[in-house]
Each structure stands twice: as C-alpha cells, then as structure tokens.
Amino acid sequence: MATYPELKGRVAVISGAAQGIGASTAREFAKQHAHLALIDIDEAAAQKVAAEIQGSGARAMVVRTDVTDDASVSNALAKVAAEYGGIDIVVNSAGGYGKLTSVEELPLDDWDKTVALNMRGTFLMCKRAIPYLKKSKAGRIINVSSISGRTLFGSTSPAYAASKAGVIQLTRFLAIELGPCGITANSIAPITTLTPRVRALRSEANIEQIASQIPLRRLPDPEDHANAMVFLASDSAAYLNGVALDINGGRILM
Ligand SMILES: NC(=O)c1ccc[n+]([C@@H]2O[C@H](COP(=O)([O-])OP(=O)(O)OC[C@H]3O[C@@H](n4cnc5c(N)ncnc54)[C@H](O)[C@@H]3O)[C@@H](O)[C@H]2O)c1
C-alpha cells in the first residue's frame, strides 16, 4: 500500500460509502489517516463501515444523505464541515443502474431515476461542496464514472452509459472552472467490478466472459479503484486535472 502522509487529517467526504467501491475507498482513505464522512442513503450499512474504520483508529462520521436531494446534500456537507472544520476531498461513488436493457425497453421512470442518481447526484455533491473546497489548501473532486461512459463494448443500461459520459464531461467542466482556485477535478472509469450490486446483475458466465477479454484476465477488486482515488487525492497527483482515468486492465485503450 502506498502511503501519502499529507492525507493525514484531510477531510474526505465519500458518497455511496455504505458498500462496494465507496466503502473500499473509505477504508483506504482511513489507512491514510484521513477524516472520513460517509454519505449514503443506507445509514445502517454506512454505520457498520464507520464502526470498522473507527475500530482501526481513524475518524469516521455518517450522514444519511440522498445525493439527488439538494437540501439533503447541503445539510450533509454543512454537518461534515461543522464537525471537522472543513472539507478537502469529495469522492462521488453513489451511482449505478437497475437493469441491463435497451433504449426501446427502458421505462421512462427508470431513465429519470438513473440519470438523477448518477448525474444530478454528482452535480449536487460537487456544486454544494465548492464553497468548502475553495477554503482547502488542496481541494479535490473525484467522480466515479464508468467504462460505459467512455465507450460501449457489452450489455449495460442506456441511461447509465449516457449519464456516466455526462459525469466525465461535468468533471472536465469543473477542472477548468475550479483549477484557478487550486482545486482539481478528475474522474475514474472502472470496468465491471464485483460489488454486491453487480454480482446480482450479471450471471457467472457473463462475468467469466468479461474477464476473459481483459488483458489482465481478471475483473478489478474495489480496492483497485480505491487505491487510484487515494492517489488522485494525494499531493503526488497535484497536477492531474480533468483526467478520466481508465481502470479496466487494458480492456479499452483510448
Ligand atoms: N461495480 C461496477 O462494476 C462498476 C463499474 C463501473 C462504475 N461503477 C460505479 O462505481 C460506483 C459504485 O458502484 P458500486 O458497484 O460500488 O455500487 P453499490 O451499489 O455497491 O454501492 C452504491 C452505494 O450508493 C448508495 N446510494 C444509492 N443511491 C443513493 C442516493 N440517492 N444517495 C446516497 N447514496 C445512494 C447505495 O446505498 C450504496 O451504498 C457507482 O457510481 C457505479 O456506477 C461501478
């Protein structure tokens, strides 16, 4: 594990931190002795992750938050800043989709919900965090996009693919807007990762088929993404801005 001593005491807000990639990311930031705020709609699951982190000696708080709700996001960020004295890092991992489908089959309310979770949620978290990040010495925004937002190579959801492409472009916009304030904004684009949500969505055969097409011949672990995000938050990545970092084992080379 790489260590970044400068992350000690920096305040990292992580959405979708109750499970999957967000929870792994919270654990990796805790190993760097950052102060964690776990933002999730599933408070009970987030509390379990927080208890584990606190057990390791790091600070962690949970704020039940619906990232698609402006008041909920604003209140959560205000609570975090009041507790820790500011916000330095925002990781937006809350996201996903309901089912693999086509444009023709996708119900309109599914489109609306998926776009709201991935795009509106990311937008609100970034927008409401900006005033706090401007006061940080090393403000960082890290948005979790997807390989589906970079290209199309297999089954996914059209609402998901479109919204994850939007997350990358929003991140680039933020990079240009906030660069002059010393804040960087980058995204990561993971390939299929075996979190509980994805295990439920895909068959074993489908998972094996995806892995067989990856040059590294395995799907990533959530920690592969978490490690990249810790790096993006570190001073070592201070000059990376507006990047969409592909984490796909070489499956898609752009
Ligand atoms: N797992 C993959 O294969 C994969 C691949 C590429 C990108 N991603 C992206 O990575 C991110 C994390 O994926 P994951 O597989 O870990 O997901 P997950 O479903 O395991 O975790 C998502 C978390 O977000 C929370 N959440 C859902 N709606 C919310 C809301 N409105 N407000 C606050 N929290 C909410 C859930 O409670 C959950 O804890 C997502 O943005 C996803 O699109 C995942």
Q: What does this entry look like structurally?
A:
The protein has a single domain, classed as NAD(P)-binding Rossmann-like Domain (Rossmann fold). It is built from eight helices and seven strands. The model has no long low-confidence stretch (mean pLDDT 97). Helix 1 packs across helix 8 and helix 4 runs parallel beside helix 5. The chain is globular. It has helices spanning 20-31, 43-55, 70-84, 108-133, 158-178, 196-201, 204-212, 222-233, and strands at 11-15, 35-40, 60-64, 89-92, 140-144, 184-190, 244-247. The protein has a seven-stranded parallel beta sheet with strand order 3-2-1-4-5-6-7, with helices on both faces. It has 254 residues and is of the alpha/beta class. The site of nicotinamide-adenine-dinucleotide has 29 residues, from helix 1, helix 4 and helix 6. Nicotinamide-adenine-dinucleotide binds next to helix 1, helix 4 and helix 6.
